[in-house]
Amino acid sequence: MKWTDKKRKIFYFSLSGALIVSLLTLTIFYSNRAKKYEYELRANQQNAVVQLSEYIDKINTDLKKELYSSGTEIKLHSGSSLTKNSACAKSVLSQISCPDAFLQNTYKFLAQVSDYTETINNKAILGEEITDKEYESLEKLISYSNKLVSEIEKLYDNYEAGTNFKIQSNSINADLSDIEQSMADYPSLIYDGPFSDHMNMENADMLNSEKEISKEEALKKAAFYIGLEEKDLTFSGVESGSFDCYVFDTTSTSISITKKGGYLCSILSSNRSGEVLLKEADAVNIAEKYLKKVGYDNMTSTYYTKDDGALTINFALKENDVTCYTDLIKVTVSLDNGRILGLDARTYLMNHKSRSFSEPKVNAENAQKSVSKNLQIKNHKLALIPTNFDTEYLCYEFLCTSKSGDDILVYVDANTGQEKQILLLLYADGGTLTK
How sure is the predictor about 404, in pLDDT bands with cuts at 50, 70 and 90? Predict the structure, then answer.
């Protein structure tokens, strides 16, 4: 069919019209979809504000009950409620559009408020007296919860009024800024708990008295530790943290040496193992000899895991017949030829110090009375156990078997005779793990 100019114009006009209609339809569809998404997100935000107001108010009430109650039962109930409400408050707070760092002090308060009350409640359970200083800290927490209640009420009022409460609006960001500003002078809280401010001030005690070595001295040590020439290593910089390290690289391996003392801190190799030729016992023996070579003596193997042709062994310091689980080093050995593929001594470097072990106040015979009658004790030994809050205690480690055949480790405080911790031993083709 021969196209005339008129037909051609009609065709292009019709095609253009169809395209415009399609584009308008798509525009309307995606516009409605975006509005629906924005509505849902705004509704979730608004709901979060309502919930946040309720949780902060409950936290304030629970804290006051903690302060005014003298009975253990009420303290435990309010403490349990604080744990739940502070966790919920953090969850709903994260639903309000803002970066976490923007509310750093607010999140810190919510983390510490339940952690601190749990710490003093544990003292009450043990019959220990809560000090005036600890009560003063509780009063400080209450004063800041009062501020939070006031600021959250403003945020809630804005929501109720329905004025300018939009996603990431200047209004809500200003309210959030006011909340954080009310916590600007939130004090450091030092106590025996994992969220205590002293946990961020940790330093490696064993390195404090050590002299700082030069980069050249560190290079010599690094070359010796991995059996290469100095020219084969490249300096890549200084790694900062609780303690500083010189870091050197090869084409496949990174090694770090502490600035103070020149201790081997870590080895990380990208080399892979080949065919498995070594037994686990051989790999453990190789790792133990390597630790002695690099200056870590009196280390005893505890548990290991096997993966992808390599064995990773956990070593703990053994001192005066006490296994110090506080001072740990992990070593990874290739099961093809015994190469050292990895080492991590950070936990050892952070925790190791000169210790004097006093005679336990409770003997093993009395300590085992705290072990459940449902368990059969196979053997026991003295061990030093780390807590979640940068402390340690001497205890008896009882290796037990349950009626169903499970192996279980029970830790009983060697000075109080109280059960402190239970770990389940899990055996698999990959080694032994604890849970």
Answer: confident
**Contact 62/85 with Cβ under 8 angstroms?**
yes
Averaged pLDDT of the chain: 78
Token pair recorded at residue 236 = 């890549």
Q: Report the predicted TM-score, pTM, of the whole model to 2 decimal places.
A: 0.57
Per the CB < 8 A criterion, the answer to whether 246 and 257 are in contact is yes
Place of tokens 């093993």: 364
Shortest CA distance to 144 belongs to which of 180, 194, 171, 192?
180
User: Span 280-305, mean pLDDT?
Assistant: 92
Q: Name residues whose C-beta falls within 8 Å of residue 280's C-beta, 6 or more positions apart in sequence.
A: 304, 306, 311, 431
Q: H or E element: which one contains 269?
A: strand 264-269
CB 392 within 8 A of CB 374: no
Among residues 420, 413, 421, the alpha carbon closest in space to that of 366 is found at: 413
Residue 183 is predicted with a pLDDT of 62
Which residues neighbour 117 within 8 Å (Cβ) at sequence distance 6 or greater?
62, 63, 66, 75, 78, 79, 82, 138
